[in-house]
Amino acid sequence: MTVNSELAEQYLSAGENLQKSGKLEEAIAQYQKILALKPDAAVAHSKIAEVYYTQQKYVEAIASCYQALRHQPNFAAAYKTLGNILQAQGKTDAAVRAYSKAIEFEPNFVAAYVNLGSMFYKQGLLDEAITYYQKAIAMQPDLAAAYWNLGKVLEQQGRTNEGLIYQQKAVNLQPDIGGNTGLVSKAANKII
Question: How would CATH label the architecture of 108-192?
């Protein structure tokens, strides 16, 4: 590993920690240090896109996703972030395409499955939503959001008791998932 690669890894780690703690501008500064060393570092562009998405700076976020994809056209994380941005803008069909690309390039990308399921839910394609939530659960059985969303879809289909079982499983895994302190609520499907 070269000195630049080691520095880039340190900047990435620092940026991710800052991002998790809500210090978004400081996180961007760390990711930009990576780009100063390696201008074609797709991961840095993708991480910057995530921060812009969090800040609801969608134009900048999309531009950063496209920068990442220009340097690494098969970068699943950038497609997932692009999908999140597009769904936030109400562009469901485009979000479906982005999440599908993420899965195409990384077939075990659980978050992309959950988010794709949520897009199908929004489109009223409940059977497709169920399929994607079930795939996510099969890959990651402790992912509360997948159980929660599956429960919401089943409830929508009139399968209330079955839906409540999945929602309770989600609450058991993550007590605050419904936006409450343990009771199942009417919160919408979760995007992760």
Answer: Alpha Horseshoe (1.25)
Q: What is the CATH class of 1-106? A: mainly alpha
**pTM, entire model:** 0.88
- Which of left, alpha, beta for 34 (phi over 0: left; psi -120 to 50: alpha)? alpha
Identify the pLDDT of residue 165: 96
Could you tell me how many residues make up the chain?
Answer: 192
**pLDDT given at position 91:** 96
Q: Where in the chain is the domain with CATH 1.25.40.10?
A: 1-106, 108-192
pLDDT for residue 185: 40
Extract the residue ranges of the chain whose pLDDT is less than 70: 1, 179-190
- Tell me what pLDDT residue 180 has: 52
Buried b (16+ CB within 10 A) or exposed e, 37-54: ebeebbbbbbbbbbbbbe
